[in-house]
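Support request, please re-run this one:
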Amino acid sequence: MTPERIAFVLTALAAVVVVLTRLRFASGEEEAAGRLDISRSVVNVHTIFGVLALAGWGAFLLADVRTWVGYAGLACWWVTTAAGLLILMRWLPARGRHASGPASDSWGEGPGLSVLGHVGLLVGSVVWTYLLVSGKLT
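Re-run finished. Output below.
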């Protein structure tokens, strides 16, 4: 598989992570599963930088644009990744006398889906960084 195809596939999967994370937190009435509350600003950063990353990185992969656009898109992916990992923190065990158990929702049991998506986004960001810095994507 060529580096370009790897980048395309990982970009498509990352787009799914950004969209599903936004959909999961979009409803103001129902809280998403987890043990801790996550600030809406973290979810907004995840969405905004995810869209910017898709636009910049997508333009870099699909169009003949300058390399700095690829680096800007990659930087946005890293911000999105950091926000996604912060979102995963909602699954950290809560301690204390008044701590409650994990909240549940209709998306699944436990943090599996979130871990898969956000650790996958981390792996994607590492792979994209390698491909771009090593000159395999030009």
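The radius of gyration is 16 Å. Residues 60 and 70 are 5 Å apart (CA to CA).
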